[in-house]
Design brief:
mainly beta, seven-stranded antiparallel sheet, 20 strands
Length: about 300
């Protein structure tokens, strides 16, 4: 029987390694477990629950090597090491809104992903099954009867502004996947579209859709110079090195008015536009016009930086 790992809610990012004896460079010792680390040192928790932060250069050589080599909380959760700056950001500011590894069974004849996931197959594909859970992966394949791209989506229990998303992705030749961040309560844009990341073998597009493409005031005036200028400023296209039938670790980071995309740990695209800073996104969707496969989905909300914090 398959075991499903599925979470919708809020969770602070932390790690809990077994308690051990830590020794300082001066020879003093403490019994504690390591709960997190960043580029400067480690946070340790004593048996009474109290915590202290110890810099790497205050630890003896053996403990420093142990701490530096230990997997971060985020790395343990993902089974993949993010760039250090992103790992630190999540451990300090991350609230996990959604986690799904798709490792469960579904219906043979209709979309049935479970949890908060919904799809548009009933309304746009005459009820045909377009989402299939296969060997712990979500396979999205458009029906020949569909009149719209697949939308596989959910609404988290809390709105989010700054956020970090992680997902594994594989495309077939000619395939495409869009990560769509929406606000269904925002009536200034068509269908709540706020921004998106579209990836295929030829190009990558970072789009502030709230400021241009789906802005309601442009719906009837898409041939105007104003609309074309707005789209040119709000969207940016990058060359793609994505290859068909290869898995990619995809990370998107919304931080203020800047959206950045990482593939396999490397920054490949970044763009700044006002709509990326929309503070009340309340919906997420995979949009697929043909076929795409995803696995290991995570969405973190990033808590605001404390006043006075750099």
């Amino acid at each position: 029987m398959k075991i499903s790992i599925f979470l919708l809610g809020l969770a602070l990012i932390s790690v809990s390694l077994s308690a051990r004896t830590w020794t300082s460079t001066s020879g003093s010792t403490i019994e504690a477990e390591m709960v997190s680390k960043n580029s400067m040192g480690v946070s340790l928790r004593r048996a009474d629950g109290s915590e202290l932060f110890v810099k790497f250069d205050q630890l003896c050589e053996a403990d420093r090597e142990f701490a530096e080599g230990a997997s971060s909380a985020v790395g343990e959760r993902l089974g993949y090491d993010l760039p250090e700056s992103l790992t630190v950001m999540l451990e300090e500011r991350g609230l996990l809104l959604m986690e799904d590894n798709f490792n469960r069974e579904d219906s043979d004849d209709k979309d049935d992903l479970g949890g908060p996931w919904t799809t548009n197959s009933d309304s746009r594909a005459m009820g045909d099954k377009q989402n299939d859970l296969v060997d712990g992966e979500l396979v999205m394949t458009i029906s020949p009867r569909a009149d719209h791209a697949i939308s596989t989506n959910f609404m988290p229990k809390e709105t989010y502004g700054d956020c970090l998303l992680f997902v594994r992705m594989k495309l077939e030749e000619g395939g495409q996947l869009k990560l769509a961040y929406n606000d269904k309560a925002d009536k200034s844009v068509w269908a709540g579209h706020i921004n998106g990341v579209t990836m295929n073998e030829k190009s990558i597009v970072l789009a502030d859709e709230r400021s241009a493409r789906f802005k309601m005031e442009f719906r009837e005036n898409k041939n105007s110079k104003e609309y074309k200028d707005a789209v040119a400023a709000a969207e940016k296209t990058f060359p793609s090195e994505i290859e068909a039938d290869e898995w990619y670790e995809v990370v998107t980071l919304h931080r203020g008015d800047t959206l950045t995309l990482y593939l396999n740990g490397e920054e490949v695209a970044t763009h700044s536009s006002p709509g990326f800073d929309h503070p009340t996104k309340n919906h997420f969707a995979f949009a697929v016009p043909d076929k795409a496969i995803v696995d290991d989905f995570y969405l973190w909300k990033l808590k605001p930086v404390d006043v006075g914090e750099n």
